[in-house]
């Protein structure tokens, strides 16, 4: 059996607020296999975003183990976390967070240049991804000239640009109407599968979660079913 792309053991996170300790994550054990697309399902406040922040190495303060592509990452220093995020992870959020002064292709080229790709290689890769997402005719449009669904497609292409082992998505269609959300998610899932990446996708939508390979339910910081 291939080694898990993501594995957490005993992952916990607590905050102190008004003198009271709040346990947001309570010993989360989770595994995502190579090429597997897992829905992280739970209501608002269940800890989904905190879990994604943890496995995305976006902040510290967590207890437990986080292994990404076989590497223990929980205790890495800031430069080490940056390297893992750059080399192993891709991110898609509810809001696209595109750079407003850059057009679609430039938004997808930039992370590749940071990763060390040449301009020609990065542009070719960006064009391939955006065309696969139906945006071949919108490459030179800035985010303000794109619809919400188009903006999110660019964000998907950006997340996959560096061929990550794992894509993390936090309510990636939550800011779209139902019809657009269905189309964007379908294209997202198709492209992730074609690229061979694994994905952990947080959502509160049962219908969207059912389209993924497996559903993991998070309730009050605890995995209820996997």
TrEMBL record:
Its EC number is 3.6.3.-. This is Lipoprotein-releasing system ATP-binding protein LolD. The keyword Lyase does not apply. Keywords: ATP-binding, Cell inner membrane, Cell membrane, Hydrolase, Lipoprotein, Membrane, Nucleotide-binding, Transport. GO terms for molecular function: ATP binding; ATP hydrolysis activity; transmembrane transporter activity. Pfam families: ABC_tran (PF00005). Gene3D superfamilies: P-loop containing nucleotide triphosphate hydrolases (3.40.50.300). CDD domains: ABC_MJ0796_LolCDE_FtsE. It comes from the Bacteria. InterPro entries: AAA+_ATPase, ABC_transporter-like_ATP-bd, ABC_transporter-like_CS, ABC_transpr_LolD-like, MacB-like_ATP-bd, P-loop_NTPase. The lineage of its organism: Bacteria, Pseudomonadati, Pseudomonadota, Alphaproteobacteria, Sphingomonadales. GO terms for cellular component: membrane protein complex; plasma membrane. Belongs to the ABC transporter superfamily. Macrolide exporter (TC 3.A.1.122) family. Residues 6-226 form the ABC transporter domain. GO terms for biological process: lipoprotein localization to outer membrane; protein localization to outer membrane. Transmembrane segments: none annotated.
């Amino acid at each position: 059996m291939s080694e898990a792309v993501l594995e957490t053991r005993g992952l916990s996170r607590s905050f102190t607020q008004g003198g009271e300790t709040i346990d947001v994550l309570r010993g989360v054990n989770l595994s995502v296999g190579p090429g597997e697309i897992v829905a992280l399902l739970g209501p608002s406040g269940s800890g989904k975003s905190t879990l994604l922040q943890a496995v995305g190495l976006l902040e510290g303060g967590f207890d437990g183990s986080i292994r990404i592509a076989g590497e223990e990452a929980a205790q890495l220093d800031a430069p080490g976390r940056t390297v893992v995020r750059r080399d192993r992870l891709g991110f898609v959020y509810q809001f696209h967070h595109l750079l407003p002064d850059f057009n679609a292709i430039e938004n997808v080229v930039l992370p590749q240049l940071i990763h060390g790709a040449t301009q020609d290689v990065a542009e070719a890769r960006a064009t391939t991804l955006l065309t696969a997402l139906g945006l071949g005719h919108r490459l030179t449009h800035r985010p303000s000239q794109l619809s919400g669904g188009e903006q999110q497609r660019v964000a998907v292409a950006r997340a996959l640009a560096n061929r990550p082992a794992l894509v993390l998505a936090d309510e990636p269609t939550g800011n779209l109407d139902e019809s657009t959300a269905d189309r964007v998610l379908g294209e997202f899932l198709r492209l992730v599968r074609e690229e061979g990446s694994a994905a952990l996708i947080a959502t509160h939508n049962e219908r969207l979660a059912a389209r993924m390979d497996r559903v993991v339910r998070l309730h009050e910081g605890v995995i209820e079913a996997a």
